[in-house]
């Protein structure tokens, strides 16, 4: 699928009449050589190019901060959870398929930066082999089709995935992880065939869901609302995962504004993710946990119950850890999901320092830290 957009810095300069100093441009090109830039036309028009601090620009336009390589390219342990090329099985009930390395736009904060938009051997090669694995594991109740972005694939391919997965009796639901409603919403509401496919396979007995990724209230445009509405009318509930990002949505007002826009559009707030300590992302985007918790709680004070159904989560290699609370210099955490199912629901605490951004930065309080 060809998506109109910009992959060269010069194209942005000429289209939006901006000029980047020569030295800076040289360095930005080094960044883009490592991790490609692609800004869909539609999304580029949401940016105020005259504002150097524009939050939408920060999401998608490369930055010199990406030259900082502290962190890791696999913060969630994806390699160790890969059971077949392109198939991960971390949590008992969920199989994760990486079906493509392409996206409708490349987010600078992507936690799969190691593979999006660049040659990779991590995406699915043999769908049939993945299907056999899923069929052979009756504990798997749901499949998350991700990538990259699966909605950049042809509709026929999406239909094939849904058709085959729908034949697996123990699958209760199928999810797509997609940022297309944000980057290229017309791909959804202009493709009647895609909507027919969703209607065909999203049934009362086995629902198809779409989990999307809005980060800022300005992304919830008329077009994005139309895409969400088309999905809902096709029987596909839409939920949202936001990443808490420095200089994008790291204020209670912005976060609360986003949740209000999402709920008014019919999108269910699902997670606010702590930004992972990914190479070329961590120093650019990660908000310390202490500050992040304050932002999230202040945002919740501005919201009704419906809009604050999300959890503030750290997607750690051991599991999804909910950031439950802070008292003094202690942070309280809980395994919302865990590789080890026995730990799901376990509450524990760690010593919090002002700049800590990840579980690994937190010191244990004592050896009995898991106390429930
Ligand atoms: S759309 Fe998703 S997978 Fe693609 S670059 Fe953005 S965060 Fe990464």
Name its key features:
alpha/beta; 4 iron, 4 sulfur cluster binding; Aldolase_TIM; two-stranded antiparallel sheet; 4Fe-4S; binds iron/sulfur cluster; about 375 residues; about 20% strand; catalytic activity; TIM Barrel
Give a topology summary.
Layout: E1 5-6, H1 9-16, H2 22-34, E2 39-40, H3 41-44, H4 55-60, E3 82-84, E4 87-88, E5 94-98, H5 127-135, E6 142-146, H6 155-165, E7 173-177, H7 180-183, H8 186-189, H9 192-201, E8 207-212, H10 222-233, E9 238-244, H11 252-265, E10 268-274, H12 282-285, H13 289-301, E11 311-316, E12 319-327, E13 330-338, E14 347-351, E15 363-364
Parallel strand pairs: 5-6, 6-7, 7-8, 8-9, 9-10, 10-11
Antiparallel strand pairs: 1-2, 3-4, 4-5, 11-12, 12-13, 13-14, 14-15
The protein binds iron/sulfur cluster.
